[in-house]
Amino acid sequence: MIRWTYAFIDRPTAAVGLARAFWAEVTGTHESAPWGDRGEFTTLLPDGTDGADACLAVQAVGGAGGAHPDLAVEDLPAFTARATELGAVVAARKPGLNVLRSPGGQRFCVVPWRGQKVRPPVLAARGGPESRLDQLCLDVAPAAFDAEVAFWAALTEWESTPGDHKEFHALRPHLDLPVHLLLQRLDEARPASAHLDIACPDLAAGQAWHERCGATLVRQGPAWTVLRDPAGGVYCLTRRDPVTGD
Predict the structure, then answer these.
(1) CA–CA distance, 199 with 4 (Å, rounded to integer)
(2) Is 226 exposed, middle or buried (CB count within 10 Å of its CB: 0-12, 13-18, 19+)?
(3) Are the C-beta atoms of 186 and 213 separated by less than 8 Å?
(4) DSSP class of residue 123?
């Protein structure tokens, strides 16, 4: 069983400081001390919330970066074995961490659950509208979409529902986990990737606030706004309820 979920924000090493500061501001968090073999990781810790557990981290990477999910589980070897039975490939094994790729090539990590259970609250301060970073959107090539939906639905055992728009498919956990998954069918074939989604009912106010924090507008959709953070990463504000995710 998946007992906790993280969104890892992968950004180029040269710009990772900008990413840490920006994402701490727009998620109501503060930076931990760097950690990892090369100090490449920074956890974003919830501000002023007694007992809330972290669910966001920033990673310095080579290349353009992106995002990926970390799944915290009770039995790391058993969950990894199940993932490979479903078609995933193990890319690396480290103490307390397995790095895998889905059949469609999406990178994700499996880590031990360490008792996290309190989801950070909706952000309702810092000068912006109510919002919550609560979703990772997995961007999937058309030919791989159906297989990726089947893989992630089987692996997570979450509620699996077609989206309101035909190119989306939502996976929602039964537990109150902080990061959900959405799969998006792309219009063209390209390598698997992922981006962050922030639930924000007032898109205009959300866009204005994020731009004041350093983001730039990429484009606007029927129920979402695509932005670029100061480190070059693309993400979305989506018109959803930040409490329920709907």
Answers:
(1) 19
(2) middle
(3) no
(4) B
What ranges in the chain are assigned the alpha helix state H? Answer: 16-27, 76-85, 145-156, 203-212
Residues 198, 134 contacting (CB under 8 angstroms): yes
Angle at 208 between CA 202 and CA 213, to 5 degrees: 120
Closest alpha carbon to 176 in 119, 111, 115: 119
Report which secondary-structure segment, H or E, holds 220: strand 216-220
* CB-CB contact of 203 with 239 (8 Å): yes
* pTM higher than 0.90: yes
Q: Are 142 and 185 in contact (CB under 8 A)?
A: yes
β partners of residue 5: 71
207 residue type, one letter: Q
From the number of C-beta atoms within 10 Å of its C-beta (0-12, 13-18, 19+), residue 118 rates as middle
Q: Using DSSP bridges, classify how beta strands 89-94 and 66-73 pair: parallel, antiparallel or unpaired.
A: unpaired
Percent of the chain with pLDDT over 90: 88
Q: What does the block give as tokens for 39?
A: 């100090």
Which among 39, 72, 55, 90 is positioned nearest to 196, based on CA atoms? 55
Go through the chain and tell me how many residues it has: 246
Please say whether the beta carbons of 107 and 67 come within 8 A: no
Q: Where are the alpha helices (DSSP H) in 32-124?
A: 76-85
Looking at this protein, which amino acid is placed at residue 246?
Answer: D
**Per-residue pLDDT, 117:** 94
